[in-house]
Structures are given as C-alpha cells and as structure tokens.
Write a structure and sequence with these properties.
130 residues, mainly alpha
C-alpha cells in the first residue's frame, strides 16, 4: 500500500464512511508525531464520519476544539482502553462544565443531527455515559 500520510491528500478516504483502516492509520501518525492540522485538514475532519471509538477520539484530539460534538468525541476517547496515551490526551482536554454544556446542546429536542457524522458519536456517548 502506497498511502500518503496526509489528511488533505486523502480527503476522499476521510469523507467515505466505509473506509476505516486508512483513516485510523493516518490519524495515528498525526497523533504519534504530534503533527498539527491545518485549516483544510480541520474542515475535512469535521465532516469525517466514523464508527470506531479510536478514530472518533483521534479526531477529537486533533481538532482541539471545545464545541459540543468535539467534547463528546473527547469524552468517548477518555475511556478508550486500547491506547492509554490517547485516553489520557482526551482526559486532559475535557472538563465537567464543557461536558454539561455539550449535553445540554446535543440532547436538546430541537437539535438536528448530521446522521453519518454525529449519530455514531451520540450513540457511543449514550452507551458509555448515560
């Protein structure tokens, strides 16, 4: 496999919900090498669907944002047992106030979910924390 380790150069893979291995491999590379994402990569990650806990957590850590959905990503990643370093990174980026705010926003009855992106994250969050 001749895979370029770039989110931007693999945009189509990141936007395809059926592709999981390549996404995770590239995200792990960014995380392990402490690579900072650029604005184009940030936008790709925000639109990237994922059904795997590790990928959800890696996206959360790389985005470094405090919005509601990313707080859920980080909270989910904080209990990921297969990668202690990733779980600890997620734990460092969350706080109780931000989680409560995220729950208020995302569990509001008028909130409209982006099915392929948000529903798996919400489902995992409910499974682990509700």
């Amino acid at each position: 496999m001749n895979l370029k380790l770039s989110i931007e150069e693999n945009k189509s893979k990141f936007l395809d919900e059926m592709i999981t291995f390549e996404k995770k491999f590239i995200l792990q590379h960014y995380f392990k090498t402490k690579k900072v994402i650029n604005n184009a990569e940030r936008e790709i990650l925000k639109k990237s669907p994922s059904n795997e806990i590790e990928t959800i957590a890696l996206i959360g850590v790389l985005l470094l944002e405090k919005d509601a959905l990313n707080m859920f990503r980080l909270k989910i990643g904080s209990v990921f047992k297969s990668d202690v370093e990733l779980a600890e990174s997620c734990q460092r980026l969350i706080d109780t106030k931000s989680i409560i705010k995220a729950e208020t926003e995302l569990f509001h009855y008028e909130y409209e979910y982006e099915e392929s992106i948000e529903v798996p994250i919400i489902d995992y969050y409910i499974k682990f924390f509700k």
